[in-house]
Design brief:
The protein has helices at about 5-10, 15-20, 35-40, 60-65, 75-85, 110-120, 140-155, 170-175, 305-310, 315-320; strands spanning about 1-5, 25-30, 45-50, 70, 90-95, 125-130, 165, 210-220, 225, 230-235, 240-245, 260-265, 265-270, 280-285, 295-300. The protein is of the alpha/beta class. It starts with a strand and ends in a 12-residue tail after the last helix. It folds into 2 domains: about 1-205, TIM Barrel, CATH 3.20.20; about 210-320, Beta Barrel (Lyase, Ornithine Decarboxylase, Chain A, domain 1), CATH 2.40.37.10. The protein has 10 helices and 15 strands.
Amino acid sequence: MAVVKAGAYGHGLEEIAKTLAAQQIDFLGVANVGEARRIREAGVQTRIYLLGATWSEERAEIVARDWTPCISSLQEAEHFNRLAQLQAKRLRVHIAVDTGMGRGGFVVDHLPETLRQLESFSHLEIEGIGSHLPSADEDEAFTVKQFARFHEIIDSLGGAARFKWRHLANSAGLLGYEQGLCNLSRPGLMLYGVSPLPEFQGNLATVMTLKSRVTLVRSLPAGHGVSYGRQFVTTKPTRVATVGIGYGDGYPRHVSGKGADVWIRGQRLPILGRITMDQMMVDVTAAVEVLEGDEVELFGANIPVTEIAEKAETIVWEIFTGITPRVVRQYLD
């Protein structure tokens, strides 16, 4: 199941969904019905799985379009069953169980009885079972226990053969752990070239490169402030390039003053002062060949996005999904 929620992690929902669908995957995982609609309107017919709880007013459309919801309560199940009956359908659903995330799913107590109740809904097909890993990239011991607990749950409900699809692993869970009874995984971040477990990064290739261009090059004297608040003041004559990108495009303002670099003409060059909404300034004193119009890599093959996330004191997921719509996505075969 390729996770393409949040605009395919900021990469562009429709284009990424088309590319992944061509790999004959079983599901595309989305956060909500709006994302599901966009995938269908793009002509992609891969099965759609809704990763979280759904609003009651959305469920009739889910049934009508044969999207697959995860069920976290008997109330949800009863409602979906009633809607499927009205539409003369049998809806395939997965039950979600809470093995430690605390965000959704049935609590573990009394699950066998709960499953019997779910099976009484004649217009639902209990096709799969899933849970979620909250700390596979941070707490190995807990995650190993969580896999074991998930396997125990499956056994208590009749064994692996009871469910066509059994899924727990996100990217970190898939890369770093034995899958056991699971036969479906839900990779997200790793599809976009970043491993949540650093030791596996060498197995992945960069997908997104964020670029802009130099819009202006000037020479500033010593003692000249750069950007808002005069956080940076030159101590010597400095050649400064202005670059046409800022936090209004999704580049994080929080890297200001943290030693972040960009890549121009084959070398790292430091950002000066605060990132502004639409522009940033870069010290190009050591790169006299830099000119207006030169391409600038903000992150990509030469400046790892993980480095930018660390300097911004955030996570790569937030960096990717924060790239705003005004940044043009260009796709290369």
